[in-house]
Amino acid sequence: MVILIVVLLVLWLITAVIGFAFKGLVWLAIVGIVLFVGTAVIGFVRRNALRR
């Protein structure tokens, strides 16, 4: 599960960087950032739930 979350975080980060690198793809960067934050929050919540 942790490996999946890390892979998704890396993919979203790459998507955001590509979006900022190309002028017309700023929307892609925004989508990448939103997905990155969402995945990080879900991973953090699930990780804390597993500890209990």
What would you note in describing this structure?
With 52 residues, this protein is mainly α. Helices cover 88% and strands 0% of the residues.
Instruction: Report the C-alpha radius of gyration, rounded.
Output: 13 Å
Largest sheet: none
Q: What structural category arises from helix and sheet content? A: mainly alpha
Topology, number of strands: 0
Round the mean pLDDT to the nearest integer and report it.
86
Q: What is the helix content?
A: over 70%
Question: What's the helix and strand layout?
Answer:
Blueprint (H helix, E strand, L loop, with lengths): L1 H20 L4 H26 L1
Helix pairs in contact: 1-2
Brief overview, please?
This protein is mostly helical and 52 residues long. It has helices at residues 2-21, 26-51.
Which features does this protein show?
mainly alpha; 52 residues; 88% helix; single chain; elongated; 2 helices
